[in-house]
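Re: that chain you flagged

S.,

Sorry for the slow reply, it's been a week of failed gels. I finally had a moment to sit down with the sequence you sent. For the record, here it is as I used it:
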Amino acid sequence: MRPRPDLRVLTAAQLIASTGDGAYIVTSALYFTGVVGMSPAQVGVGLTLGWAVGAVTGVPLGHLADRRGPRGVAVLLALATAAAVASYVLVRSFVPFVMVACAYGAAQTGLSAARQALLAGLVDAAGRTRARAALQSAHNAGLAVGAALGGIALHLNVREAYLTVLLVDAACFVAAALVLLRLPSVPPAPVSNGPRLAVLRDRPYALVTLINTVMLLYMPMLSLIVPLWIAQRTAAPTWTVSALLLLNTAGVVLFQVRVARRIRGLADASSSVRLAGLVMLGACAVFALSSFGSSPWAAVAVLLAGVALQVTAELLLASGSWEISFTLAPEDKQGQYQGFFGSGTAVARMLGPALLTTLVMGWGTFGWVALGLVFVGAGAAMPPAVRWARRRATVPAE
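Prediction finished late last night. Pasting the C-alpha cells below so you have them in one place:
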C-alpha cells in the first residue's frame, strides 16, 4: 500500500497555480491586443501553435517524470511555466510572442502530466479519481478567485495593471513549486524492457484518448461559443455570460467530489462518460432554444438551464475519464500515459474554438444539435473502447 498523500498540500498547490491562471486567462487577450499591439488573428495563431507544441511535448515530459521522479519534474515545470509567463512582459512583437507561447504550452502540458504521475505515485489506485476530483474543485475555485483579480485589471485598463497580472501569475507558479516540495518524494519508476515511449504504440489507449478529446470539445462552449451566441442570437443581456460562468464554476467546486465518489471502476467510468454525452446533447438543445422568443428574462432562464446540464455533463465526463486514464495506464509509465491522455486538452483548446464557431455560429440551431450528436456518439463509443483497452492492458476484471 502506497503512503496516503497530504491532499491539503496538493490542493494548496493546485489552488495557488490556478488563481494565477484565472487572472491571466481573463486579461491576456486584451493585453496582447491592446498593450502589445498584435491583431486578434496573430494572437489566435500564436496560442494555437503554443498548444500544438504542448500536445507534442506532453508524452516525453511525462516520460521524464517517470524516469526522474514526478515531484522534482513537476517543480521544475512549474518554475518553467513561471518563467514563460513572466517573459510575456518582455514581448513586443509576433515572433517573440509565438516563442513564449510555445514554451508556455509545453511547460503547462508537461506540468499537468507530472502532477498526474505524482498523484498516482502518492495515492493508491482506488482513491485516485476522488483525489483528482478534489484537485479539480480547487482548480475551479482558484480560477474564480483569479478571474475576480483579473477583473480589477480590466477595470483599470492600463498597461501597468496587465503587467502586474502577468507577474502575479508567475509568482503563483513559483509559490506552487515551493508547496510541491513539501510532498514526499516519489521514486522514479524502474526501467523496463520495451520501447521508451510505449504509449505511442498502445492503440487501444490511443482510441480512448481520441474519444475523450472529442468529448473535451465542450471546453470552448462557455468561454467563447455561448457568449457569441448570447450577443448575436438571443435577447439575453450581456451580463448573462458572467452568471453562466459563475454557475459553472460553483457547480464544479460543490459537486465534483460527490460525483467522483460514485465511480468505482472502469465499468462505472465508461457509463459515466456515456451518460455525459447524452446530457451534453440536452445542454446543446437547450442552448439552441435560447434564441427563440424576445423576452430577455426567458432567454436568461433557458441559458441557465443549459449551463446546469452542461456542468452536469462536465462532472460526469471528468470523473469517468480520470478513472479510465489512470486504470488503463501501466503503473511504471503513468507519466507518459497521463501526458498522452492530457494532450487531448491541448488539442481541444487548439482546434475547438474554430470548429465550434463554424458549426454553431454558422449553422445556428442545427449546429447545436449536430454538436450534441457528436457528444452522444463519442460517449457511446467509450465503453467498447475501454473494454478493448482493458483486454490489451490485462487490467483485472471488476
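What I noticed first: The chain has 13 helices and no strands.

Talk soon,
D.
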